[in-house]
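Purpose: get a first structural picture of the assembly so the mutagenesis plan has something to point at.
Setup: two entries, given in the order below. No constraints added.
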Amino acid sequence: MVRRLRRLRGPYVRDALGIALATGIYGVSFGVLSVSAGLSVAQTCAMSLLVFTGASQFAVVGVLAAGGSVPTAMGNALLLAARNAAYGFVVAPVLKTSRLMRAVAAHLVIDESTAMARSQDNDDDAKGAFWTTGLAVFVLWNLGTAAGALAGQAFAEPAALGLDAMFPAAFVALLAPQLRQAGAVPAAVAGAVIALALLPFAPPGIPVLTAALAVFVGVAAAKR
Amino acid sequence: MSWSALLILAVAGYALKALGPLLLGDRRPSETVARALALLAVPLLAALVVVQTVGVADRMVIDARLPAVAVAALLVWRGAPFLVVVLAAAAVAAGLRAVL
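Result (structure tokens, whole complex):
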């Protein structure tokens, strides 16, 4: 127990709580947008509890709000969630725990917990930072979602509030930190061009799904 | 959106997260595959920005969303918090619509 408490004073705890607080506010935005897009409060809260990966959740409600079908919304969300698989491979070696706890840890594999684990200089701190960040973000993301979903019900006319501009603005904010990876800028440009070119011809959701192919542009650019 | 669709999304999303910690043991993907998985979000998010800024169903429409997203991009670049970015975009779009 004493060891646990000492661990909670780890150098990463303050950062983890700061990140969690910011994520909670971002959860409020998700809750508002999700109920405005037509999901119930219960579905909105269930998605944050069970899916728990912000960009994918925004993609689902964003595509549905823009008139896309459920399968294209889910396709977009899962392609966005593929990066969590890459994160899982990054954090797996430092987890060193029982199978049950690794199953719990897997649910917490997201942008924030992985970034915090990566920024520590030893495996013990990486493990502590992963759990602290993951759990703190999980709690505040879900509290934020519930608060936003309940508040969002009060808006009678979401379009008048500029809801349709909030989604692309949210995607800009989600994209910006991802652009630091090697090859990311060419991939982003190619993805945008593909989507824009297909927009007049393809059903809603398909231009974005097809834009995933631009990942090859990014991988090729990163290799040079 | 149905509850069954939501549950499928939850299970598939969890499976992706669990590949490393739970399912594949010590096996690791090649560096190229890992990089592709990590990069996949980038073109998708860029495409979502474009389509949701100038798209309406299957048409291109320039309206209040474009200046709103431009303001949002400026705020992101200046390091503004997420909620500020999103609310500013909404305010610009709603404001322009009220005036025009």
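Chain A touches chain B through 103 residues (CB under 8 Å).
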